[in-house]
């Protein structure tokens, strides 16, 4: 009987680990090439949502865990927006919307991002489509504010249909 219990426990632990791995596989990737992302956004006729985050930012982690990652797992949002991250102050290279080389930190400075988290929505040419969502002062309403901006940006991308 002890062997069966240990075997069952091992199987359950494996399933639990597989479930955690599957959930952690969903992420909001750090951008490397906005020009490439713009082509995908143009083809899908959706905006590009950019989370400007910092490595040591608890509120950035909260925005990711409570809002953006659940949205990434939801097929409805996959049809509405492309999500990427930029590390404020980061030195990782990236290409901007025009294809010019820059860094995460420089891209954030060029867009006047001073606080993290900041969310901005862009069209494929790099034009800001909505007012930036800065900080996380009202978590209870944040999802609504975020949805409102996504819907506004999507409407601007698709125009009257």
Q: Give the strand content.
A: 15-25%
How much helix, percentage-wise, in residues?
40-55%
CA gyration radius, whole angstroms = 19 Å
Structural class: alpha+beta
Order of helices and strands: HHEHHEEEHEEH
Q: How many β-strand stretches? A: 6
Task: State the distance separating the first and last CA atoms.
Answer: 65 Å
Number of helices: 6
* Main beta sheet strand tally, sense and closure: 4 strands, mixed
Query: What low-confidence regions span 5 or more consecutive residues with pLDDT below 50?
Result: 18-24
Whole-number mean pLDDT: 88
Q: How is the largest sheet built, in terms of strand order?
A: 2-1-5-6
Task: State the shape.
Answer: globular
Q: Would you summarize the structure shown here?
A:
This protein is globular. It has helices spanning 2-25, 34-44, 58-73, 75-78, 104-110, 139-158, and strands spanning 48-53, 82-87, 93-95, 101-103, 118-122, 133-134.
Descriptive account of the structure:
The chain has helices at residues 2-25, 34-44, 58-73, 75-78, 104-110, 139-158, and strands at residues 48-53, 82-87, 93-95, 101-103, 118-122, 133-134. It is 51% helix and 16% strand. The relative contact order is 0.17. Mean pLDDT is 88; it is low at 18-24. A hairpin with a 5-residue loop joins strand 3 (93-95) and strand 4. The chain is globular and about 65 Å long. It has a 4-stranded mixed β-sheet, sandwiched between helices. Strands 3-4 form a two-stranded antiparallel sheet. It has 161 residues and is α+β, with helices and mostly antiparallel strands.
Features:
alpha+beta; 6 helices; globular; four-stranded mixed β-sheet; 51% helix; 161 residues
């Amino acid at each position: 009987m002890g062997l069966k219990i240990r075997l069952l426990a091992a199987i359950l632990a494996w399933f639990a680990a597989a479930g955690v791995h599957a959930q952690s596989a969903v992420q909001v990737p750090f951008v490397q090439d906005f020009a490439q992302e713009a082509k995908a956004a143009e083809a899908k006729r959706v905006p590009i949502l950019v989370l400007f985050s910092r490595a040591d930012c608890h509120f950035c982690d909260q925005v990711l865990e409570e809002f953006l990652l659940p949205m990434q797992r939801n097929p409805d949002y996959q049809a509405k927006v492309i999500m990427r991250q930029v590390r404020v102050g980061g030195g990782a290279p990236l290409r901007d919307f025009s294809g010019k080389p820059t860094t995460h930190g420089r891209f954030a400075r060029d867009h006047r991002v001073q606080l993290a988290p900041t969310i901005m929505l862009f069209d494929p040419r790099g034009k800001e489509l909505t007012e930036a969502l800065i900080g996380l002062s009202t978590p209870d309403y944040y999802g609504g504010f975020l949805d409102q901006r996504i819907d506004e940006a999507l409407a601007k991308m698709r125009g009257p249909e």
